[in-house]
Amino acid sequence: MPGSAKTMTVATVGGLVLVTAYTVALGSNGWLWFSWVVLGLLTVGVVVARS
Fold first, then answer.
1. Keywords in UniProt for this one (predicted)?
2. Contact call for residues 4 and 50 (beta carbons, < 8 A)
3. Confidence class of residue 4 from pLDDT cuts 50, 70 and 90?
4. Which of 16, 12, 4, 20 is nearest to 39 (CA)?
5. Region 16-44 average pLDDT
6. Could you say which of 9, 21, 29, 45 is the most buried, measured as most Cβ atoms within 10 Å of its Cβ?
7. pLDDT of 27-39, one tens digit each?
8. Cβ pair 48, 17 in contact under 8 A
9. Helix extents (H) in 1-51
């Protein structure tokens, strides 16, 4: 996996951890989850394009 794809993957996993922690601490926020889904789809696109 090239460097950019690995960085995107780390950012996506880190984002999931942060959004989950926010949800547990303060309650669900739909925009945060939507943003995380968009980031996840972009990451999948980068990984597929680099493969």
1. Membrane, Transmembrane, Transmembrane helix
2. yes
3. confident
4. 12
5. 94
6. 9
7. 989 999 999 999 9
8. no
9. 3-26, 30-50
What does pTM read for this prediction?
0.84
Question: Whole-angstrom Cα distance, residue 4 to residue 31?
Answer: 25
Structure tokens that stand for 43 in this block: 């990451």
Look-up: residue for tokens 């394009």? Answer: 49
Query: What is the total residue count of the chain?
Result: 51
Tokens of 20: 């989950």
> What six digits make up the tokens of 22?
């926010």
